[in-house]
Amino acid sequence: MKIRRVLATAVAIAVTTPAVMLSVTPAFADTKPAAQPQAKPTVKELEKAAAEAQKAYDEAVAAEEAAYQAVEDAVSETAPLNVAAEKARKAADEAATAKTTADEAVTDALDDLTEAATDAEREAAEKALAEAKAAATVAATTAETAEADAKAALKLSDDARREAFKALGKAQGATKQALAAKTAADAALARAKEEENQGGGECLDEPGLTTVVTGFPSKVTAGTATTFSVRVTNGTDKDMEKVLTYASVHATDKSGAKDIAKYLKLKWSSASSPKWKTVDGDLYIDTIGALKRGEHGDIKLRLDVDAKAPAGQGLTFIAGDYFNKDGCGLTPDAAVNKFDIKAAAGKPAPKPTKTAAAGSGVTPQGSGSSVPVNTTNGSLAATGSSDATAQIALAGGAAVVLGAGAMFLVRRRRTGADV
Prior knowledge:
Blueprint: E1 3-4, H1 8-16, H2 18-21, H3 43-75, H4 80-112, H5 119-198, E2 204-205, E3 209-214, E4 219-221, E5 225-234, E6 240-253, E7 264-269, E8 277-278, E9 284-291, E10 296-305, E11 312-324, E12 327-330, E13 333-342, E14 370-374, H6 398-410, E15 412-413
């Protein structure tokens, strides 16, 4: 019998809330209408949703590129407002110089009014002083006006730059949402096709089978290894003939745009198998074996972070499955643990990029905390979300949760014969 997890969340995002995720446009609407429950979608409906999500994502990426170009234009020295501001500043500086010259002329004219001067010289000096004072007054007014004009022109230039950065931040947020929707829609479609093509029954959620993680760090550093514990407990009223533990790790750099999971590896050991072993591509740990009612099994996990890993954010999914001759079951909730990745000492932080960033999906609550991803009621545990920044760099790692969660949910389970 084929074993699968229900992809209710991806279906809900991809199909029942198109206004939230699948209709991202350059207008970047801030309001999000509530989703309305619908029947389970067909493959055809999911194909349409996936196509719409792809189109929305492509449009969001194009809009972000345009917003980034607008930022570059706004900060360019040749931008009209910047040219006007520079011209106004030059005029203000010239007016200030003219005022200084006029003030000096007044001083010189005063110096010419000496007691030894003849009447003709005094008359000429007084005339020169009057003219100098008049010129100084005009120069002062001109300088004041020019300075005000320069400040106004600079404000216009600064405001234009600020608005360009603000628009870019909003565009990046829209791109993240669109990518999240695309990831969920693609996963939902893959799931539906798998069910259609392969048939078979589903394993049932088993609330009595629990997975608890302890000692998981809130931060890890490149070049180090951190050990933590996992306990799987059979809290049901039946014996379980075979229990497996599922464990996976996902990560992005600080921008959220680059997958850095290749720098992270999970290894496991147990009392019966103390030598550390790498969690293989199947992501299942086969060491607990049978669990009678009320019993538990313990596993040690180790998170190895390569010394070359850049700073970023990561998370793990840890869950349990059991297999009996008369059926099988899954832990309804996966323990999700979010952590920060610190670059090795002396390793410079990566520069922000303008690459289209990952989508803003649900995130686990708090750094280092273990929270459930629920697959029973049709939603990933909504425990927070990240905001787009108002600058080119954006808060990274937000989409890793939804993307990894979709991967976790859509993953095919083993057959009873395989395990």
